[in-house]
Write a structure and sequence with these properties.
Blueprint: H1 17-25, H2 28-37, H3 43-51, H4 56-75, E1 76-82, E2 94-97, H5 104-115, E3 122-126, H6 133-141, E4 144-147, H7 153-172, E5 178-181, H8 196-204, H9 211-216, E6 220-227, H10 233-245, H11 253-265, E7 269-275, H12 280-289, H13 293-310, H14 316-326, H15 337-352, H16 361-382
Length: about 375
């Protein structure tokens, strides 16, 4: 097994924390953000509080968690975590989930784990989101590790090998569970699919010649995330039109920052997490049914998708959007006229936020309807409805 140095990608060790907090507190943009989040605390007191933290757990429980409680109280109608009965509290898992919000998918999960007296997870974050140098310190003190993007083919292979080795190092040596999204970037249309390249990366650091055995080392646990409302839906719709009108369009770091801010501070309605449990037994079944590695990769990806899709929490908004897209009234009995009117008004309000010169309202509205209809479409398929 090749030895790797993880120092430039790993989450910070306890002895890294004091220096990282010093660097953060010396950054005016960071202190401005924190002062905005804690407006009642004088700046000097806030700084001394930040400098007092000596572990990631202290920072998360005493500063990050109270802010997430504020978000739950003010930006949602409640956040629930189902499926804790499906895991062993003494075991470490690789939670792989659909991806809706850049920051909150993993952050709100950690808040719920804290409430249930479980350790928070290490979090995979792409280096494309480190739009300011201080953001790297901020995420790494918060138990995040860095996934390198924008590499050439040779670099991708080496980076993937090291990342795969780090996943095992984090679980076995650092004794942490991990959260990772099922794909690079968010599924902008909410049609969630696990990238096979991700499973190939998982395999690279394995200790066995068997693809399935290498996946089983990670105790993969699919996790479903459902937001009643996606605060970034209008930004995602805008991006669809920009790409339609200019196939070469690429988001800027500033766009990512706007998406992060909007996702955190926007209204989400009800938020539901559902842990399905470890899939090792079902991976064994795949190994018995086919020796072909490519088939195993494809079927493992579909297995993860199945568990994510079947545990979505479906709301009236999903059913209204589905009916409208398909031009029928399959679910009309499940929502009221008032709920339909409220959702239509919500869509119109979001579309009004889109600042495009050649705004194609019909296209934008359809793309937003897709975002709300697709989770239901996948839920129905997974549950044979």
């Amino acid at each position: 097994m090749e030895e790797y140095n993880f120092d430039d990608i790993r989450s910070y060790n306890t002895d890294d924390i004091p220096a990282a907090m010093e660097r953060l507190c010396s950054q005016k943009p960071f202190m401005k953000v924190v002062s905005t989040l804690f407006p009642l605390m004088p700046k000097e007191q806030l700084k001394q509080r930040l400098l007092s933290f000596t572990t990631s757990n202290e920072l998360q429980q005493q500063m990050v968690y109270p802010f997430l409680q504020y978000l739950e109280a003010n930006m949602t109608t409640g956040i629930v975590l189902h499926g804790l009965e499906n895991i062993d509290r003494d075991q470490k898992y690789l939670y792989i989930s659909n991806h809706r919000d850049i920051i909150l998918d993993s952050a709100l999960l950690c808040a719920k784990l804290i409430e249930n007296k479980l350790d928070t997870v290490e979090i995979a974050i792409g280096d494309n989101l480190l739009v300011f140098p201080w953001i790297e310190d901020l995420v790494r003190v918060n138990k995040s590790f860095i996934v390198q993007r924008g590499l050439n083919a040779r670099q991708v292979l080496e980076s993937s090998k090291r990342l795969s080795a780090y996943l095992r190092h984090a679980m076995k040596e650092r004794k942490n569970s991990i959260w990772i999204a099922q794909r690079e970037g968010r599924a902008k249309d909410s049609d969630d699919r696990t990238q096979e390249s991700l499973l190939k990366m998982f395999n690279l650091g394995g200790n066995s010649g068997s693809f399935i055995d290498n996946l089983k080392e990670l105790n993969i646990c699919p996790l479903s995330i459902s937001y009643q409302y996606d605060p970034c839906d209008f930004l995602k719709a805008k991006e669809f039109q920009l790409k339609r009108d200019n196939p070469d369009y690429k988001k800027s770091p500033e766009d990512d920052l706007i998406n992060m801010q909007t996702g955190v501070m926007g209204y989400k309605g009800k938020v539901v997490y559902h842990i399905s449990g470890c899939i090792n037994g079902e991976l064994d079944a795949i190994a018995r049914e086919t020796p072909n590695r490519n088939e195993q990769i494809e079927r493992a990806a579909h297995l993860i998708d199945y568990h994510i899709h079947r545990n979505f929490s479906i709301t009236a908004e999903n059913k209204i959007a589905y009916d409208e897209i398909h031009g029928d009234k399959d679910f009309a009995k499940d929502y009221s006229t008032e709920e339909k009117t409220t959702f239509e008004e919500y869509l119109d309000k979001q579309i009004r936020k889109i600042d495009l010169e050649n705004k194609d309202r019909d296209f934008l509205r359809y793309k937003m309807l897709e975002m709300y209809a697709n989770p239901l479409k996948n839920y129905m398929k997974a549950n044979n409805i």
